[in-house]
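Complex record, two chains
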Amino acid sequence: MISFELTQEQKLAQSMVQELASSQLRPAARSADDREAMPSSILDEIWATGIIQSQSDADGYSPTLNALLLEELAVADASFAIAAAAPIGFLGAIAAQGSSAQKKNLLPIFAGDKYRCAGVAIMEPDFAFDVSAIRSTAIKKRDGYLLSGMKGLIPLAGSCSHFLVVARCGDTLDAFIVERNARGVSVGEKKPNIGLRALEMATVSFKDVELPASARLGESAGCDVQRIIDSARTALSAIMTGTARAVMEFVMPYTKERVVHGDALAKKQTIAFRLADMRIETDAMRWMTWKAASILEQGGDATRQAQLAYTYCTENAMWIADEGVQMLGGHGYLRDNPVEMWYRDTRTVSVLEGAVGV
Amino acid sequence: MIDFQLTSTDENVLSSAHEQAIIGRRYARYYDKHEDELEPAEFPEAKDLPNPVTLAEEGLSGSSGSRILHSLVMLEIYWGGISLHRSKWGLGNTVLKTVATPEQFEKWKNHTIAIAITEPGAGSDPASIRTTATFDRETGEWILNGEKIFISQAQSGDAAMVLSRFIAPDGSRGMTTFLVEKGTPGFTVGPQLKKLGIRSHDTCNLLFENCRIPEFNHIKGDFKSTMSVFNDSRPMVGAMALGVARAALDFTREKLGERGIEIGYRGGMRSRSAIVDRFIRLEAIYEAALLTVLRSKWLEQQDVPPKVEASIAKAAGGKAARRITQGCIDLLGPEALSEDHPLDRCFRDGRIFDIYEGAGEIQRLIIARSILGYTGRDLR
């Protein structure tokens, strides 16, 4: 039955995260970007919401709730939202597709009271990369696999204890649980990108990593890699919706205060209409994200919906971030204002694949 | 709980609406070519078929709600292009229902009442209408003079609800509505207008020349109550726009498929052809706009009158129909131009939705005023 109704529980969680986002996260965003480092206090705040650990609990699994909360986190800062969405992606994949032994071994590790990170490693450091052309390989051996390849843009790679590495195995894609300390795994230095600079993203190389058969997600049953990608696209859509909302909510009061040619900038139709379009598009982005998330939650095939949400959000989030800079003019170009950071962050989020989940 | 799945009741009603739309589509080209001909109030094929609009409005238990279902039924009807059951409800009926006295309502409740607002010099700015009614003390009648243009249901309707200025006997002035029945001396309906598309849509100009109207026909809607009929209709127009847009997408997907081009959703944009990428982007526009329509209709069902949401749905639907019908012709190339196929009609029909019942710009004014906290005077 078509419904946009949030449950009481969802409303509570949403307002709790909203409060955290505006009081703690937003004020910390700029300096984290400047210092290219994720403050551990922020990670602890995010961890304390319970959003990440809830993946481990069968009753707590809710892509719809995660989509709601990731949007709120991203209104504060996209890097912080991804710091939550990355382990959610990892744990969500284990919880949904792991064998019972994999769940039993891994999920409790992420039930402690300190932030822990693990990454979904899909993207590769290669121009014109596409999820359908993954080059990393896992070669089937008598009692396991030999994994080789490079994975890029892994959030908080240096602090991850595990990676879920998507690699080509024969004709199909498979996902492998790889411990950070396994022989042949090396985490590169954090590499600054256009945006999401607080995320300490890095390339991880896997050189002839010997994996036991039990490292394959789902073990003998294998897994549906597409579902991991669908989940990631949905999470990225939620994050882009949040960043777009941040831009919109920032430029509205600014353009009302800013006087140009004797009147408020927002009273000029060219500006007012673009603000109206920002509202139209952020609404649409959110409903697209919710729809993909609700299909995932019901265990349906969300591939089409996640693709449409992701495609729509990448295009419109970038448009909104771009207009945000434009509406502030020269001030938008200064690092004194957040719109230039959102412009960089949006360009970054909107080309990512994998890395996160709902 | 957030959910976007249709219920089985929804699906039953919508599949019936779709079957009728397939029949309607067979007539779409005929009425496109014969714009002076009104289609029958009920097509012979529809004799034993339920009107899906009525089914939706009945608020069947187990449906997603009458408002949501009604909008999805309209989407199906516009997918086909011709409704097998002509609507007996006009926007003038909405004014009658909301502001008329019980006696007035009783008299005209079974009439189809067109709404007449737009004038040659007053389209997006209806406050500047010039049609005027003066009161004749001797006969106790109103005398109406003016011209109304682009009036839907002008020929098929039984009456028009006319928004007019008035000068009362005490000299006071303002705006009000009069119900003018067909056949009233001084009331002339012009010929069908020659339009780019929606040629089956009954659209004429109305002329009032010293048209005498009894006081009983003074419905006493004011400017605000008259304009508020569009609150309900805006998301509905969004749904209609999306019916035309989906017809274009469906045809394009089918023809691309026949040429071996399948739309795949698994890979990323760097793994697909420009045609597939463009199709996916158009389809995303469709989905996005449809969800804004559903959102607005869902709010109506919660007894939260949508404000910006109604305008968002109209603006999103109107823009989607433009971009999708234009874009699909790009994807299929020159052969798509032919009248042998439906895209030429989708392209022409699809252009109206961002114009009538409040152009896209008017929706953006409404949205901007609302989100910025501006009045009509602050932002014009």
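Note: DSSP finds ten helices and nine strands in chain A.
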